[in-house]
Amino acid sequence: MAKRTMVTKAYRTTIVRDASMSYVPVPFDPKTVFGKALPPVKVTLNGYTYRSTICTMGGVTGIPLRRSNREAAGLEGGETLRVHLDLDTDERTVTPPAALVKALKAAPPAWQRWRELSYSHQREYAESIEGAKKPETRARRLQAAVGAIRARPARTR
Question: 8-87 in CATH: which number?
């Protein structure tokens, strides 16, 4: 059996934060290092690791740094630190809350559209619903998620 080599990259950078938006700048060509322009990566900051994808927005290449990940890493934004990236080759799956599964299956073709969503989109919907503190907020987010997912056009392959 061939040994799998881990593709990694470590560098120092300054975390960018503008109001509620934060990201980790990527000062190199991801395709050269990871073989893809938008590779999935495991990001380690301050000893905390999370999964994300390198992306380019407005001509800037970076990795989104959600508030939950920033806080878990003990960061405010603006810190200069060492970033460690590993190409994420693990399967990416999201286990949706049971109430979301039930609601999606009751609203055809929502369940099929859910299955077509990217890992990141599935994760965002699931975390939004699970993160609601009040039952009425959870119900409102659940209803909004089902409506948005159901309205998506079918993916063509």
Answer: 2.40.30.100
